[in-house]
Amino acid sequence: MGDRSLSRLIELAKGVHMNEAQSNEQRNSFVYGNTKIENPKVTRELVEQISHAVPTRSETHRIG
């Protein structure tokens, strides 16, 4: 992939806006991928379960 193609993809990605469900799914995927490296006992189900116990960004703004 050339520099121009990569630059174009980066520019397109800047315009992507995820809804809350998509953002949570992306966050859980990131958390799973990074924690699984350190702890092979981590499961996607565990990450999903914990994510329901942690307030989302919009819930934090409503509280604070």
Question: How does the SSE layout of this entry go?
Answer:
Elements: H1 3-14, H2 20-38, H3 44-53, H4 57-63
Helix pairs in contact: 2-3
Brief account:
This protein is mostly helical and about 60 residues long. It is about 75% helix and about 0% strand. Helix 2 (about 20-40) packs across helix 3 (about 45-55).
- The parts where pLDDT drops under 50 for at least 5 residues are none
- Helix count equals 4
Major sheet description: none
What Rg, in angstroms, do the CA atoms define?
16 Å
N-to-C CA distance: 44 Å
What proportion strand? under 5%
Which structural category fits the helices and strands? mainly alpha
Number of domains: 1
Q: What form results from the Cα inertia axes?
A: flat
Order of helices and strands: HHHH
Percent of residues in helices comes to over 70%
